[in-house]
Amino acid sequence: MKVLVTGSTGFLGGRLIENFLAAGHQVIALGADSYTSVMGNNVTSPVMIDWTNRCELTTVCQKVGLVIHAAGPNASDCLSRKTSAVAFHDRYTRPLLEACKLANVTRFFFLSSVHVYSSEFLGSYDEESPTLNDHPYAQMKIDGEKMVAAYREGGLHYFNLRLSNVIGYPVTPRIKAWDLVANDYALQLARFNKITIKSEKSSSRDFLPMSDFLNAIDLLVNLKKVPHDFTFNVCSASCTSVADLASLFVEQWHELTGQRSKLTFLQNRDKSDHCFGQFLIKNDRLRRLNFSNSGSLDEEVGALLLKVRNWKHQGVLP
Q1: Is the dihedral of CA 90, 92, 93, 96 positive or negative?
Q2: How far, in Å, are 27, 129, 159, 175, 206 from residue 2 at the CA level?
Q3: Mean pLDDT of 244-257
Q4: Which of 16, 199, 217, 254 has the highest CB neighbour count under 10 A?
């Protein structure tokens, strides 16, 4: 199969490309940078396109059977540049969906976020829960989901995947995702041999091993029978405190380097961007398709720390 991945120079996009190539698929990569600098020479037909040129975009889509739309501004970009976040889907997502429709691309996956539900998780959530988060990042994802749903018709199977906090190594240090909790912890250890935690000790999140994210994508891509549902929570269905995650990073860093590190908590009372207390984000829909959470946070943290240690030795840390 030939696959198109947008956001190919990003955290998830890079790992998706790596995963598809390992499975023997061909990949067309759309991103912001030079693709050969991201994945060596393994990406098939790397292209730079004019997103405003419908003919050019449709021609690219005619070459593929599947599109993974992983591109989009991160949470901090949405907060600092709200106008750009609002305009993103009109500039990129709508033309891509229109091109896919014209090219008869039958499967399209939009990477959304579980943070569409709330800014402070409490209780349990499934795909039918209301999307109440008014943070610009969540609103950007909600707008994208609505746009994807509007193009879902006939034989076009377009999915919204609501991801929790994915933990894994990036394929390059040049990603714009070092403010994600796990990536931030790894970078702090590599730079300073300590972790300063800005959120409260009670702050908890649903942390998803990268291997489970990739397995969920593989499952949905390879389904013989298209499911009735088109929105899926892709998560661990468990709750882990940031304090416990940081302790795991410190333990793994000590095993890897022999260095003992210090944990420091800042008394940050701003709870708007964090999940607090006990909560549950359900992934029963995915489980009914025979998905299981078999990934290991320990292994993902170890692989991430190994990457940043090597990049430090190479002098390429961001």
Answers
A1: positive
A2: 6, 34, 18, 24, 32
A3: 97
A4: 16
Each residue's pLDDT tens digit, 161-201: 999 999 999 999 988 899 999 999 999 999 999 999 988 77
Helices (H) and strands (E) in the chain, counts: 12, 14
**Residue 58 amino acid letter:** T
C-alpha R_g of the chain: 19
| 161 φ, ψ (degrees, to nearest 5) | -110, 115
The span from the CA of 102 to the CA of 91, in Å, is: 17
First CA to last CA distance, the chain: 34
Helices (H), the chain: 11-22, 36-39, 54-61, 75-80, 82-88, 94-103, 136-150, 181-192, 210-221, 242-257, 284-287, 297-314
CB 234, CB 191: distance < 8 Å:
no
| Residue pointed to by tokens 């229109």 | 98
How far is C-alpha 82 from the chain's CA centre?
20
Residue 78 CB contacts under 8 Å (≥ 6 apart), including other chains: 85, 135, 136, 137, 139, 140
